[in-house]
Automatic annotation (TrEMBL):
Keywords: Glycoprotein, Secreted, Signal. It is found in: Secreted. The lineage of its organism: Eukaryota, Metazoa, Ecdysozoa, Arthropoda, Hexapoda. This is Yellow-d. It comes from Loxostege sticticalis. The keyword Transmembrane helix does not apply. Belongs to the major royal jelly protein family. Residues 1-24 form the signal peptide. Transmembrane segments: none annotated. It comes from the Eukaryota. Pfam families: MRJP (PF03022).
Length: 445
């Protein structure tokens, strides 16, 4: 693209941005969309059996999370989706999406069959994470609906061979009967290539805690703190014309970028809340939680500002910019973690009442060119909850955009620094900031 065209494109885009409130603006591109989910079965016989046993009931499943595996060479890149089993009818709980949007069980269908009776396979997966060591981390809650069929387990697959390389079955002392282990975030310690030295922090949405898995030593512990609970004042949700109540604890989680010689920070928030919390991962990695899960009251901090309303998912890029969805109005936002967590530093990336409802999966993906991309999965989850899903309308969408392109219309990376940063700031990479063109400059052309 010539410089002139690029500037014209950015100018057009910026003009659209300045008409805030106009909902025609969509900066994210829809990569896949579904009215209802369609599945590939190994053969007609397995499909028939799945329907007979009500393992497959068309129109019954909602995708909640996704990740994108961009591959080198001739191998096709893959989109992973998770489909938690809230009840009967979902033939696979983790799969890859083909060009037609059909979902194939990962790593193969046998892992998904015999639902509730196959604890060596997958029972119900809410969220996944791909790490820098080419592993797909899968958190299996072990529950179908509210029944715990199998112990929760954390698995890792090597994405080159699609072989299982790690399985940690969570011991009964580390979860409670209401637990719902949903969100894994992966901390490969240091810059070394020692992929074994890894910790995984997992949100327990309904057990109100965080599970810490020490992969090198194959052990885990539970951490609890009052910030992991839902806030009754934020237990009512509104998405367009639908209202519903949910009291969910820690749900959205993101890790700060790695900085040499420092521990990362874990950002996290409860679904039924408007706040954001921060804890040094060093605190979480302390194995004295094996004796006592209660975190020191002051070891975890709540950031001072609040979001206008609830957020289901978040992710952070390598420059310390946090991306998250907001329920009402359905929208995607960013916040530069080097600034105060306050509405004046929250920037809207996209808003759309139709396409951005309930953003339950937000991921920062490293593509094969070394660029970062923002991926988001949205659904009419509120309609699903209320049993009013209309399978003639588009209900689920996966969106994506290159992060530098998003910044053409957002001042996130350039937010003024706060004089009173409450926590140790992540220093954004300034080289990257210099490359970003600001809308204001362009409007003066
Ligand atoms: C596993 O859980 C059981 C039951 O809560 C407990 O007695 C046991 O000590 C735990 N084992 C480990 C290794 O934590
Ligand atoms: C681990 O936690 C215990 C109990 O809170 C504390 O006494 C100890 O200093 C901590 N260790 C580290 C390395 O932070
Ligand atoms: C969410 O925040 C927006 C903006 O402040 C507000 O208009 C809306 O009423 C809020 N919704 C709920 C359910 O609180």
């Amino acid at each position: 693209m010539s410089y002139g065209i690029k500037r014209f494109f950015l100018l057009t885009c910026c003009l659209a941005c300045s008409w805030s409130g106009l909902e025609a603006k969509i900066d994210l591109q829809v990569v896949r969309q579904w009215k209802k989910l369609e599945f590939n079965f190994p053969n007609d016989a397995t499909r028939k059996t799945a329907i007979e046993k009500r393992f497959y009931v068309p129109g019954k499943c909602v995708p909640i999370d996704m990740d994108f595996h961009d591959r080198q060479d001739a191998q096709k890149s893959r989109i992973f989706v998770t489909i938690p089993r809230f009840g009967e009818g979902c033939p696979v709980t983790l799969g890859t999406v083909d060009d037609q949007g059909h979902i194939t069980g990962y790593p193969d269908y046998s892992w998904h069959d015999n639902q509730g009776k196959n604890c060596k396979g997958l029972t119900s997966v809410y969220r996944v994470a791909i790490d820098k060591c080419n592993r797909l981390w899968v958190m299996d809650a072990g529950k179908i609906g509210s029944k715990q069929h199998c112990p929760p387990q954390l698995l890792a697959f090597d994405l080159s061979s699609d072989r299982l390389v790690y399985r940690h079955v969570v011991n009964a002392s580390n979860y409670v009967s209401t637990s719902l282990l949903i969100t894994p975030v992966v901390d490969v310690i240091g810059t070394s290539d020692n992929c074994k030295d890894t910790f995984v922090y997992v949100a327990d949405a309904l057990g109100f805690g965080i599970l810490v898995v020490d992969v090198a030593n194959d052990r885990s512990w539970r951490v609890t703190h009052r910030f992991m609970y839902p806030y009754p004042s934020h237990g009512s949700f509104k998405i367009n014309d639908d209202s519903f109540d949910l009291m969910s604890g820690v749900f959205g989680m993101a890790l700060s970028p790695y900085q040499r010689g420092r521990d990362r920070y874990l950002y996290f928030h409860a679904l039924s809340s408007t706040t954001e919390n921060i804890v040094s991962t060093k605190v979480l990695r302390n194995d004295s939680f094996l004796q006592n899960p209660n975190a020191e009251p002051r070891s975890i901090k709540v950031l001072p500002g609040e979001r206008p309303n609830q957020s289901a998912a978040e992710a952070m890029d390598r420059n310390g910019i946090l991306y998250y969805g907001i329920m009402d109005p359905p929208s995607i936002w960013c916040w530069n973690s080097a600034t105060e967590f306050s509405p004046r530093n929250f920037h809207q990336i996209a808003v759309n009442r139709e396409t951005l409802q309930f953003a339950s999966g937000v991921k920062v993906v490293n593509n094969r060119k070394g660029e970062q991309e923002l991926w988001v999965i949205t659904s009419r989850f509120q309609k699903f909850l209320k049993g009013t899903i209309d399978s003639k309308a588009v209900n689920y969408r996966i969106h994506a955009a290159k992060i530098p392109n998003l910044f053409a219309c957002s001042s996130c990376p350039n937010s003024p620094k706060s004089p009173h940063i409450p926590t140790k700031p992540v220093i954004p990479n300034t080289e990257f900031l210099d490359e970003t063109l600001e809308c204001d400059d362009l409007l003066e052309v």
